[in-house]
Amino acid sequence: MNLTLYGYDDHWIAVDCGMMIRQDLPNSPLQVPNLGTAEALNITPQALFITHGHEDHIGAVAWLWPKWNCPIYATPLAAGLLRAKFAEHQLSSAAIKIIEPGEAMETAPFSVRYLPVTHSIPESCALVIVMGDYRIMHTGDWKLDPEPLIGTPINAAHFRALAPIDLVVGDSTNAPLPGHSSSEGDVAKALAKSLKECKGRVVVSCFASNLARVLAIGRAAHQCGRRVSLMGRSMERMVSIARGLGYMDDFPALVPPHDLGYLPPDEVVIIATGSQGEPRAALQRLAQGRHPFIDLEPGDNVIFSAKAIPGNERPIEQLKKRLVQLGVTIFDEVNHPELHATGHPAQEELITFYQWIRPKYLIPVHGEARHQQAHQAIADSLGISAPLAPVNGDMIVMDHLGLRCEARHPQPPCIVNQNSVVPHPGLEATKTTTRRGSLFLALPVAASDTGWWRIGRLMLDSNSASPLDEDSFSEWLDNQLEEIKADTLADLRLALQPRLIHWLADHMQHMPEVHLQIMAAEAPL
Known about the structure:
Layout: E1 4-8, E2 11-15, E3 20-21, E4 30-32, H1 36-40, E5 48-49, H2 55-58, H3 61-64, E6 72-74, H4 76-88, E7 96-98, E8 104-107, E9 110-116, E10 125-131, E11 134-138, H5 156-160, E12 167-171, H6 184-197, E13 202-205, H7 211-223, E14 227-231, H8 233-244, E15 268-272, H9 282-287, E16 301-304, H10 313-325, E17 329-331, H11 347-357, E18 361-365, H12 369-381, E19 394-399, E20 402-408, E21 414-417, E22 420-423, E23 438-447, E24 452-454, E25 459-463, H13 470-483, H14 489-507, E26 513-520
Parallel strand pairs: 2-5, 5-6, 6-7, 11-12, 12-18, 13-15, 13-16, 14-15, 16-17, 23-26
Antiparallel strand pairs: 1-2, 3-4, 4-21, 8-9, 9-10, 10-11, 19-20, 21-22, 23-24, 23-25
Helix pairs in contact: 6-7
């Protein structure tokens, strides 16, 4: 959920404040960071710095910022998205301050400079944070894209001039992948080629925040003599804010969705939300024949210009089955991988970047344990010290002795329920009190053709609970995952919950209060 706190001499700042969607809970509520540890340690940031406008970096700001009431610094696009969120929450946006990429500002004892990087949303920035004698680079999300379509490539000279950096807090998402990520320019060419070959109506689904992709689709449609329409509230909002900032001046004129029925199918391109199989998104309604303005027909085409997020594989497959039943031709990451590019750096990019800034230490963040470990291996090959692969709640100290984890604080989940942030209800079927202790269990799983399987480490934290044999517990969990038949994480949780209660009751002297979180993980390559 991307909330990082940096402290120096009892002063603190926060970087990003995102949310995630809890796919394992009914109605898929939002989960936001738990501020309990920060409050217990009397930590209140004096400023919040936003690296870019993706939901996993800004989605919790409107929920949590009122506890801080501090200035919020963001680039124009992220600031526009935050203002829209604040308006929905009936909050004043006076605290949101625009900072242009390349600029620096000071909130003593911190100096923070925004350095533009390329990513799958414009105005993404790495932050150089100077405090005392230390210089830290918080990379945010980035890649080395020579042709980003919106914005300019990363300026290597700016980063070389910073070398050497004391510490880089770096993106591990694609650290296991060899080579170099694809460019948005290459994707734009592939989209233009595919659209030119398509007969009938074309629907392209991508992330609304990937404005370079949306722009490429619009340009390709215009070249093919097709008219463009947007479907999905988030898509319409994102394009509206971007056009107001001058990012999409050459985007073609839009056809309102209610006018699409009057146009011949081979003159239409629809850019729609729903690439992840979301139940209420535009593409799902089209697949189910529930859209009020248009029906997909045999001969139409749907292009998935987005990678499946872990945990969404099964809903996406169900969506594709419905489209196939309608006689629709599907283009996706399997049969046309050239139609999507990641926004994160592969191994060659990480090596190049670290050769520019020459960090002494690395803290690998983002991704899962195997991504962090791959990132540590890259650092080791470059002579960079990376002794830690942190988990949520770690308090890490950097001083003249190096890096060390000073404390590990459990992070019980907090979800948004009826417009308020509340503790995760846990397994409510247990009649327990905290007198018996608490057991926090985070279970990372991936979907396979036959069922679910556990990925990486089982995250188990017991507080004053009876002893538990973790080896036998892990073995039992793996067996249950093999047996349970469930299409979604929510169904998996529903099936696992009573079994878990029964097993713990049989194997623990006292039944603790249990907090279960099932997380979608990416299967190893």
